[in-house]
Each structure stands twice: as C-alpha cells, then as structure tokens.
Specification:
23% strand; alpha+beta; single chain; Jelly Rolls; 14 strands; 293 residues; eight-stranded antiparallel β-sheet
Amino acid sequence: MLYKDLSTVHALVSDIFRHPQNREEWEQYKLSDEQVDFFNENGYLPNVNLLDEKQIATINAEIEQLADVKHPGHQLFYEFHSNESTDPSTILFHALGAWRITPGLHDVLWNPRFLVAASQLLGNEPVRFWHDQLFCKPPKKGGVVAWHQDYSYWTRTKPVAHLTCWCGLDDSTVENGCLQYVPGSHRWGLLDKPALAGDMMEIVNYLSREQRKEFNPVHVETRAGEAIFHHSLTLHGSGENKSDRPRRAFVLNVFKDGVISDSNEPLLSGVPPVNKGEKMNGQFFPLLFEGLK
C-alpha cells in the first residue's frame, strides 16, 4: 500500500489551523512596523508567536513517529539523518520533507500567522515554498549547528529573495542550544559554506578582518511555539544541548514568488528538476500565500 504524499495537497488537510475567511481576519496576524524595521536592520526577528499548546503537542507527537525509520512514509523525506553531527559524542537529528508525510507538519505551511509575517518580511510579496526541515537535539548530548548562511546552500535558485522561519517546539535557552545570530550580517554578501553540523566556528575562516571585528553573536531564547524569522544571508548557528530537556524545532524555508531555478539538476532529492532559468513552481514548490491585497 502506497503512503499518501501530502505534497499533492496545497491546502489545509486537518483542523489544526483555521483558514481566515476575510481580510480583517488575515490582518490580525500582521507584524508591527517596529518588528519589520527590526528585521530589516538586524536580519532576524525573534519571538513571533506561531503555535498554541495543542498545536505544539500535535507536531511533537508527529516528530516522534517520524524519527522511526520504519515509518510507512519514510521514503518521502528528501533527506533523513538520524545523526548528522560530525562529533560522535553528540546527536543532531536533521530531516527534510516532513510536510509530505504527516498532517500537522504539512499544515504548518498554511498557518496564517506564518504566512502573513513571511509575506511582510519579503516586502509584502507572494510567498512560495522552498522546503522544510526538522532539527532535534536530545538532552545532554545534542550537537551543534555550525555558523552559516542559509543561502550558501541554496545557490541553485536565484535571485536572493529567500526567508527562513525557525519555530521552537520546546523552550529554547542558552543551555539547550538556542539559536545565535550576528546582527547586520545579512549585509555582508555571500560567504563560503561550512559543513552544517561540523565545527561550529569554521565560518571564521571565511570572514574578512572587518567582518571578524563585527562578529558579535547574540543568543536568542524563545518559548515553545515562538518563531524566529531570518534573512537567508544572516549568519546564525546554535550550540550543544547540555540540559536535561530536548530542543526540537521545525524550519520553513520560503522565497518570494518569481525566484527561478539556476540548475538543471534535481533541486531536492527525488524531486523532478526545474530547468535552469524556469520559475520555481509545481507540486513541490507551491504558492502558499498571495499576500494582503
């Protein structure tokens, strides 16, 4: 029996979220001008409420199921790493493609709180999906995510018009490996890319003398259900989980509608190529939101 591939459904498939019925209902989720200004200045925006307790519980239960390599929908992942850490003493669970497999992780793409904020931070533009990720750091031995820019892994699409939304499913603290950012680094241009789960400080080798002086990381702690949005050129990373609690999160990567493929190779494992120069669209790159008109 084939497992249903939810990438064929470009709408809510469960009742975990409610689709707004009119402009007024959409506008209740708008970010303030101050929040948008903070993002534009610093390259990230912290502490945006995305999920309630029931939604968090639903998604955490799905992640627990998906961690089992015998899950019937497992072949739908683009990538699956039970442990991507290069340090054998730590664990970093990382996977791409969960939106194709379980209802909650599919429907977070159509969470109106996420869609309105994403459109605003892309310049009030339509929002198209790129791919999702899961990042889980178990208690006591959760591994690092090295300092990096997301777009350094996405140069097979252009122009740079991408946005990342990281959403925590547990309280995220310095002790359990919360995200860290270098404010203003989205203006540094594209840097060489490090191994994502390798030496956390490898990025320093790619910085100019002036950039090293400006490398002043900020830890961003969040409550479960809160998101951090960041520009695709903003330097960010996260440390080990040394606490006795897990640090679980999902990530939604999107871009402004109109981004094109810059490669004739498959853009994600198992996904048919989008020819170089053609607009990103279709089953695997759906338009999520046209924006507030």
